[in-house]
What does this fold into?
Amino acid sequence: MLRIEHFTKTYGPKTAVDDLSLRIAPGEIYGFIGHNGAGKTTTLKAACGVLPFDEGEIYVDGHSIKSDPIACKRVLAYVPDNPDLYEFLTGIQYLSFVADVYGVSKADRQRRIQEYGEMLGMTDDLTLPISDCSHGMKQKVALIGALIHAPRLILMDEPFVGLDPVASHQLKNVMHRHCEQGGAIFFSTHVLEVAEKLCHKVAIIKNGRLIASGEMEAVRGQASLEQVFLELEGQS
Amino acid sequence: MIRALMYVRFRALMAAMFRQNRTTKKRSGGMTALLIFCYIYLGAAVVGASVLLFSFLAEPYHALGLDWLYFALAGLMALALALIGSVFSTQSQLYDAKDNERLLAMPIPPRAILFSRMAPLLVMNLVFAGIVLIPAMAVYAALVHFSLWALICQILILLGVTALAQAAACLLGWLLHLLLAKINKSVASLLFVVLFLAVYYYAFSQSERVLDALSTGGEALAGTLKTWAWPLYAMGRGSLGEAGYLLGFLAVCAALFGLAWWFLSATFLGTVTMGPAVRRRKRLELSKLTVRAPRRAIASKELRRFLGTPVYFSNMGLGIVLMVVMTGAAALFQGRIWQMLSELGELADLVRPYFGLTIAAVLAFWISTMCVSVPSVSLEGKSLWILKSMPVSSRQVLLGKLENHVLLTAPLSAICGLILGVVFRCPAVDCLLAALSAGLGATLCGLLGMVAGLHWARFDYLSEAYPCKQSVAVLVNMFGMMGLPLVLGLVYGLWLSFLNPTVYLALCCGVYALLSMFFYRLLVTWGVKKWESL
It folds into this structure.
């Protein structure tokens, strides 16, 4: 579903991500962890076509994000760490706009808005201007917007930040269901307990370089993910 | 602490002027020169108008012994200009700055934050007041007389007017902010601008009548002003060097500025942290959702942004409102217009063939104030990721933004051209050509705006006022669209006046069409690449 090959991204003299390779198959929830500034957001942004990059290739569902970005973007959804949405729209206007751009039929968009709106407890708040919404409410609108076109790959940057416990629980359910239906999820997080319980696979990035990746059990062994992460970071 | 805040504030201003954006290098010397040229041009236009006006007033007022009234009027005009020029900036800089909450969370007294925000506004007001008062002083010195003491008094009066304008702008800005929080921001903002301009123009239209009345009864006027508008009287007298009045006027200015400062300091925290108006939730009616094509959806989203962003709507929408109002007024008062024209006698017959060209030129100037497309790229700001992550081509995004501009302005401009052509009884061909040139002009304005907006795109601004009114892109778009009819007019006047005006109007339409094609090509080639690199 997502294939990252020798991905390198530099900002001037600074190399943000260096020669990173990863493969995410359908049905997998893949966690991406690392310290602040390790290169997680850069990788996610490049994978969804928001950020151009220097070297390597990224394939989404077999299409290159460099040469065929539109085909890639049709099957993926991206949820950034900070839900900076269009403040001048209401939640429902934003969702309708996203559905228009993705070419979602009227019946499908009605059904999905209803379903995810109720699941995240947002249905009544969707008529409010986004400028009046709290951070968590904006995050929920961004999540519904990401799910409205039934993407096959979902890229999320810190998706649990700002969500209330009920919404976090519902999001985990959505993630499981998405993968059971053959979709894939690649998300970054600092909450190692969540990653440990939720993910099939995990990748750890340090200073732009991948230092560990694979099945969750294989990466953590007999220890906890937190212990492994701290060891790899040289903190324990 | 204040020094640190002021440093940050002026660094932000300098960065806005001399840097392309936070990631790239300094603005090139050429661009900085262009920016400075645009500001100088704007300043020179106001200074020129002031010199012209005051050169008509100085000697007659001196002859009538009303020198004080001359300076009182100059001060009043300076105050009005500074107020018009700064009230909206004051509101957005004081209350809408994105770093307000961050600074309030730090151990900084609100009054210090307020001071750091007001200092650049004071400089701006000083410039506004200066471009009226300095020409008034210069003209008076050249045509009447001027002592060194009077010059010192004038400089002090200039400072007083600046403080007075800032005090008034602060209070009006505070009121505007409260108004914006309670009702639809864009409508409130536009209503405020229209009301402000209506009062200003009414006062201006009555000024001649009032001045006539004043000149015949100077003493009576002095008495009235002394009683009812003492600061104005004191400003006039103080400008001539009368120390008592000067001190009195400065004391009033200082007191009002202090009062405004105290009031804003006391209310700053509450006003900045004031939550949005509690809105009643509407029922979600999913059956009413409409389905649009991607480009139409982008254009529609842009329209909602235009209508939902006060600073955007009040700056770029004012031209649209004025065009409709002026065309409506021309249609409504066409009898009076023709009566005035008939009073011109043979001259009216001489200029009549040029009505079509004149209408096209006037519309072109109005169109230059409708730069709807130019801030649309920068206004994406932090939500740029949305369009970038969507399966929509860069070309469609840019054309969607352009579509919003064209649909908002081109048909309206063309209809106004047609109505004005009919009001001024132009031949049918001239009416159609005036309409065509207006429609093409509006389209060209949108295309130039898109290209300029892409070239000078910035996403690191603190207030939306920057991309809407302070960026180089807006200046280039506005002056470019203003300069084109000027150039075409000069070419006609200097070299092509032998041509029939209708033929020349058709040629102008051709020029607009060719330029539109050029900028369209530029937009879908260079523009697409530029968008992708943002």
Summary: The longest helix of chain B spans residues 29-63. The two ends of chain B are 36 Å apart (CA to CA). Confidence is low (pLDDT under 50) at residues 20-24 of chain B. The CA atoms of residues 296 and 400 of chain B lie 6 Å apart.
